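Notes continue from the previous slide.

Worked example: a multi-chain complex. Inputs as given:
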Amino acid sequence: MNGADIGWMILATGMVLLMTPALAFFYGGLVRSKNALNTMMMSFASLAVVGVLWALAGYTLAFAPGNAAIGGLDYLFLRGVDLQAKGMIPHLLFMCYQGTFAVITAALVSGAIVERMRFSAYLVFIGLWSLVVYAPVAHWVWGGGWLGTLGTLDFAGGTVVHVNAGVAALVAALVLGPRRDHGRQAFLPHNVPLVLLGTGLLWFGWLGFNGGSALAANNAAALAAVNTVLAPMATATVWMLLDMYRTKRMTAVGAATGIVVGLVAITPAAGFIGPRAALALGAIAALPSYYGIIWRSRTRLDDSLDVTPAHGLGGIVGALLTGVFARAAWGGADGWIAGKPSQVLIQAAGVAATLIYSGAASFVLLKAIALVMPLRPPEREEAVGLDVWEHGEEAYSSGEGAILVLSDDGGDR
Amino acid sequence: MKIITAIIRPEKLPDVLEALFKADVRGLSISRAQGHGGEIVQVTNYRGTTAKMELHEKVRIDIGVSDPFVDVTVQVVMKAARTGEVGDGKIFVIPVDKVYRIRTGEEDVDAVTPPMIEGSV
């Protein structure tokens, strides 16, 4: 082990950690002001709940030696996870780096069900989901499971993170049903500058997400980081042109969405394709997600912040294009253009397996939780907004008429 | 002519607007208001500070109407804004001396009658 690798991976861990608060800003700006804190807390709480569960049990299920489907229990409660080398870095650091991925993947799902899910039910859901869905899928691809053996290329989690979160989001939106005034009222973002701030921080963090997935300070990390800069630039450019073509105006929310879609799409390919391919991949990836979002908004499907079109569709396109553009000379394996068309099918197998497993397991989890506790708040509380009801706080309090209570009784709902 | 001022719950605003438009009442102004009407106070906590919010967010709607429209407007707002719980708000009907439309100088009933613009519903 050397200082450069360890140093880079500590930094990359911090950068991916920052992506979850960034996602909170991104999502928080897109909702109405009465639900801003609740939406942001859905991401921040994942840092707490999913992070702890990852250390206790998720990590071992994903990365301990096991069978093709799931890891064993060797690392339960972090037993045996110490400063010995795992690859080029201390095992403990590897565990922590991977933990930041579990946290943001669970938080991504929240975008589909904002403004209408009970916070307690949400926490139970993402906690169980991180163990039952995220950990096995991560094992399949990165932990020695069957998709890795099959040869699926997923550099930093296009399938494990984005397809996985995208389909879980779709299922969650369907199980919970639309917000009560969906289809009657236009839901407008309450703070677009927050959305842009979140986008910028996500992009910065994503260099740690993709660059760090090399798990060392090496050429693969440099390639992944550069591709992570280039691809979203192409996606955002195409996105703005599509906006121009459709509405004669380039929108800020559109540019932000384009950047995120580009980041999603380059994720599986980052360390496997060259820079020109990254630009092409980014440009192509804009189209399905752009039109997917437009189509989605005309349906009764209330995937409120378009997690399915942005992350699900963007992740699928990225995974398949990885099979097209991959070149062993850059890293990984050859894809279609380099003479191995079957790689696209291998990529499709990874996507299909994730869609089926994550979709089915997310459905069962939500239905099981619904037997024990209500998933949705009462109608009136949903109308008033979840910030005060769930958290006893307001994002933008005027402070007028606030009377100090001197007892330390926290008050009841 | 009368001016009808309604103080309602913000979350009922979409219902009230929809009902008013359906009843052909189209000229109105809304503003945010903070009010106290005896409803249960919300309690918020910020670190060690616990506060009771005595003033609640409300929306104020002002509608200038000619006399035949007074009753229908009041009934429409009352029906759409009601939840049955304390805090639903109030409707005030206030006499008006004169009304002018700034654009045309029209007065009184003409000034509170929506202009027939080509293409409007």
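Summary box: Residues 342-372 of chain A form the longest helix (31 residues). Chain A touches chain B through 25 residues (CB under 8 Å).
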